[in-house]
What we know:
Radius of gyration: 22 Å
Oligomer: single chain
CATH class of the largest domain: Mainly Alpha
CATH architecture of the largest domain: Up-down Bundle
Number of helices: 14
CATH topology of the largest domain: Growth Hormone, Chain: A
Amino acid sequence: MAVVGDLRVLLRLRNFRRLLAVRLLSQSADGVYQVALAAHVVFSPEKQASAGAIASAMAVLLLPYSLIGPFAGVLLDRWSRRQVFLYGNLLRAALACCTALLILGSAPEWLFYTSALCVTAVNRFVLAGLSAALPRVVDDDRLVLANSLSPTAGTLAATAGGGLAFVVRLLVSDSDAAVVLLAALLYLSSALASLTLGIRLLGPDREELRARLGAALAITARGLVDGLRHLAERKPAGRALAAMAVIRFCYGALTVTVLMLCRYAWAGTDSEGLALLGLAVGASGAGFFAAAVLSPWAVGRFGRFGWTAVCAATAAALVPALGLWFVPAPMLVAAFVLGLVTQGSKIATDTVVQTSVDDSYRGRVFSLYDVLFNVAFVGAAAVAAVTLPPDGRSPVVVIGVAVLYAAVAAAMFRWSRATSTALRSPGRKEAG
């Protein structure tokens, strides 16, 4: 496979291998920790988890990305990135140990969520630092390739970490604390792996003049506003982001539905429910991988808006056909489809934004994209919390999500045709 050959070329670069090791260990720890958090909130025998509790857990996992993400770069341009990986992962290892103690000690929920929130907040700096450091270990000719493969490898590591967490929890009865301690060990390993990189290798360059921190933060806030204005002037990017937000919202609502079904409707015991959830996560992950393989061909065949329209239309047709039965086997097929649809749409959206937004605004627009992507998911969890019945069986939610998918498909199909017409017209060019 071409991907394997490309990865082999990159792995010949020593410092790339070392940075990739930091990423893989860090993101595998993220996968373990996130599953531990979800399992403790949803599948602990002493808890009767509600959709509201699930929404709270998702907010803890995702809101730091939205609130801290746009400003993380300001600090990353002032701190040694190698030290961010070292101390950030050491801090997360310590905080994960604290989380494990809170689980064992039956601490108040707010204290548990505070600890988890701190772990995920630090994660924003580590992930942003990994992206910022990549050009320091890869030459320009291979940078696009590295940008494609490195985050994909990290996502697969997180999925593998989640799978490992499921296995540990099933083997060690009711051992959420043990799973969290496993995450702490992986965070510590990532910190140690960062020591193989030179302290100045990853930047930033010290000799560059920087504004004071307060001024830099103010500039960042103004920059985000400018990015929003620029986005309003770039209709293809704005349309793609709007469609992606709705698709992400649908994915979030159905994720909470599956969590509730696994917890209360499909399994006689918590262990059985957790095993079914693991299968659903695996099926969705397989869909993500399929999207990575299929999307380059599909975008070439249908266009960027056209591929998003195909994805949304597929979900609109299959979600009610598979989901209204509320039984495991069709839902697992639906999980695969939704993984493919969501990731396929994201790949198309990323390409639209990259090609239709000016380079000088691209970073700010992607920061806004990051905020929108995660807020849509948390918002879906919040809506599901007030609409889902205790066992998760809600035809209204399934049909409502299908209607939203259909609306996105219709809009993207119309915009795809409009874009094709614009590209054929002399003197006009819009990326879609």
